[in-house]
Amino acid sequence: MHQIFDVFILTLILLSLYLSAEFVGLCENILRNPIPLSYTRHTSRAMLLWLIFLPFAVVSSCQLATIPVRSHLASITEAPQ
Question: Are 70 and 54 in contact (CB under 8 A)?
Answer without folding.
Answer: yes
